[in-house]
Amino acid sequence: MHREPLAVLADIHGNSLALEAVLTHARARGINRFCNLGDTFYGPLDPAGTWAILKGLDMPAILGNQDRILLEGGPNWENVPSFQRTLKGIGEDGLAWLKALPATLRPESDILLCHGTPKNDMTYLLEDVTTGLPAIRNCTTLMEHLMPEAHGCSLVLTGHSHHAGLVMCNDITIVNPGSVGLPAYDDDTPPHIIASGSPHARYAILTRKDAGWDAEFMKVEYDWNAAAAVAKENGRDDWAEWITTGLA
Fold this sequence. Notes:
Blueprint: E1 6-9, H1 16-28, E2 33-36, H2 47-54, H3 65-72, H4 81-99, E3 104-108, E4 111-114, E5 127-128, E6 135-136, H5 139-146, E7 155-158, E8 165-169, E9 172-176, E10 184-188, E11 191-195, E12 201-208, E13 213-220, H6 224-233, H7 237-245
Parallel strand pairs: 1-2, 4-7, 7-9
Antiparallel strand pairs: 1-12, 3-4, 5-6, 8-9, 10-11, 12-13
Helix pairs in contact: 1-2, 2-4, 3-4, 6-7
């Protein structure tokens, strides 16, 4: 089993400027191992630039729900500008890369990668948002979401909520690194908001210890005003606000 630190990225959402900053930050700390928890391209930012960065990297990755939407398409998406722009940006080779990604992955025997829960990429794992704000689930509920897929795991890595957090249940460390590319948003199913509180790009560094795992949650500065300008140019003032403030 690897002892080298692992940089965990999630929810890039086509923000190539944030992605480049995170990779530079991690490499400056001597990190050589990375993984990507999905929702890599979708959004009004720079899917082409994001794909240009990622396609040359040896980075295990899984499929997120909005990656899956790109593959499935359908009439509801034909007139959505961000959908069409993302497809055009990543091209056939990017789409082929997505098609080859699994929904979950065990890069090591005791590590599980999932986007939402192991069973459902649309369900937040760590958070209950029925009150409108993220509240950490109890261990009983978490284990219901995790098992049997996480049997034998000491570490589960999850994304989707863009909300950084760590919970330990039954000798399993569960970590959401937060979002590389979109620090806040609102949603209507159920109505809720996610807000990191700052515009920084976020990721986590996980290190295996003799007993369990050590997690460092990283916040990285980058030119978020430039990223927000792209969102505005593409008709998404809401994304521009979320990117520059980390608030929703």
